[in-house]
Each structure stands twice: as structure tokens, then as C-alpha cells.
């Protein structure tokens, strides 16, 4: 009897569920969240282990951080506008917003790589201290995710140029990329708060 | 045909231009506040850390609601369960790690 109830309940709820692919992608994002959680835990433990090397306060610049944060935040809303256009079926508009999002994300990655290059050139590379090892591992893992998102955006722009209507499958892909992109923004909130700002206090 | 279906399916939870703009404005205000609290140096270090922690937590919630469209409808019930599990998992991971490593450091007198 109990089994029957569960089945019929599941069936009744089924119509309100979102698609399994999107739920599966959400589960992937949660596992990604655990990876970032581990890296934040490592950073929290090693954040003061400078080994006589430079501290975060000496290394980080607030203007560069503000610019990176602004680019990522603006890219979030431009992707949002892309999703709205997608739900209206305006393919050209979706491609335009995806391209804008791509450029903003590319700017973010460019600034981050430039920052890393400066630090390494100044002798503050990942091999200098435990603090810097943890810093480079955490921040570059986020940067790698953003770079993968950029590749995904290009793939979506190309795929969209070959269709005349946005079908359900295409909509799923755009929705999952949307979740991915906004999730990275959430990780960045924790990065700029606990890695950068907390080091500048 | 399939186009109509997807439009109908996502109709309830994909957000509108207004909700995206509200989320964006809130995120900008919260980010700017965190930067100003740190740059202003008007609070004590521990108060500054508390302030930016609260601002970050609020901003994460803003992003979840306005950008990832999380809500309490039955459509999202499983998303929310997995999310809460992950939240608990990550909290235990981070707080547990800090607790153990601080204890170790204290007993080894390495700090």
C-alpha cells in the first residue's frame, strides 16, 4: 500500500517537475560547489602561512578587483537578457547577448591572467608560500571554469546560427549554461570577499 | 511545435527583464557596500569581517533568487533538497577543517 501511495504521489508531482537533464546539471553544479568548498577550506587554513613572502595586503589591488567583479556581474545580467530573448524565440538577439556575455567574460579572464603574470614575474608565484599555493589553486580553478564557460558560449552561438527555431533541447542547453554562468558569479562573490577583501582588512 | 512546448514549460521560472534588473541593482549595491566597508577602515577588523560576511551571504541569496530562479514551488523541490544537502555538507567541510587545523596548530604550538 505504502508503495502504491509513493508511486501515485510521484506521478501526481511529475507534471510540475523540470526536465531531468536540467536537474542532473544542477546536481553537477552542487558537486562543483563541494570542490570549491574544499578549496576555500584549504585557503582558510593556509591564508596566513606566508613563509616570509608577500602577504595578500601587499599583493592585491582593489581597483583591479573592482573591475574584474564589475565585468562578471554585468555579464550575468547580459546572459539573463539572452535567456529572455531565447524564451521569446529571437535567435539573433540571443546570439547578440551571448556575444556580449562572451566579451565581458573574456575581459575577466584577461585581467585575471594579467594579474597572475604580474605576481609570478614579481616572485610571488604559486611556489613562493603556502598562502600563494592556496590562492593560485582556488582562484585559477574559478578562472578555468569561466574559460570553459566561454568555450561553451561560442559553441552555443555556432549551434544557434544553424537553426530556425529554438527547440526544447536547445532551450535546455541555454538553461544549463545559464545556471553554470550564474553559479560562477556566486563563487566569485565568495572569492572577492574571503580571498581579496578579507586580506585587505 | 516543440518551440511552443518549451515556451510553455519554462514559463513560470525563467525570470523577466524587471526581475533581472532588480537582482542586478541589488548585487551592485551589496558589492559596492562590501568594497566601501573594507576601503573605509572605519570598523574594527573583526567587525569589518562580519560586515562583509553578511553582505556576501545576502548577495548569494539575491543571486540564487533573481539569477538562478530558485523558489519553493514543487517544480524546484528536488533542486532545493540537493542544494540544502550541499550547503550542510560544505559547512561541515569548512568549519570542521578550520576546527581541526586550529586545534592541531594549537597543540603543535606551530602558531
TrEMBL record, chain A:
Superkingdom, taxonomy of origin: Bacteria
Pfam families assigned to the protein according to its UniProt record, in alphabetical order: COX3
Keywords from the UniProt entry: Cell membrane, Electron transport, Membrane, Oxidoreductase, Transmembrane, Transmembrane helix, Transport
GO molecular function ontology, one term from the record: cytochrome-c oxidase activity
Biological role stated in the UniProt entry: Cytochrome bo(3) ubiquinol terminal oxidase is the component of the aerobic respiratory chain of E.coli that predominates when cells are grown at high aeration. Has proton pump activity across the membrane in addition to electron transfer, pumping 2 protons/electron.
Subunit organization: Heterooctamer of two A chains, two B chains, two C chains and two D chains.
Name by which UniProt lists this protein: Cytochrome bo(3) ubiquinol oxidase subunit 3
Species the sequence originates in: Acetobacter aceti
Organism lineage: Bacteria, Pseudomonadati, Pseudomonadota, Alphaproteobacteria, Acetobacterales
TrEMBL record, chain B:
Membrane-crossing segments per the record: 20-40, 47-70, 82-101
UniProt GO BP: aerobic electron transport chain; electron transport coupled proton transport
Record bears the keyword Transmembrane: yes
Keyword Secreted: no
Subcellular location as annotated: Cell membrane
GO molecular function terms listed in the Swiss-Prot or TrEMBL record: cytochrome bo3 ubiquinol oxidase activity; proton transmembrane transporter activity
One Pfam family from the record: COX4_pro
Protein name per UniProt: Cytochrome bo(3) ubiquinol oxidase subunit 4
Species the sequence originates in: Acetobacter aceti
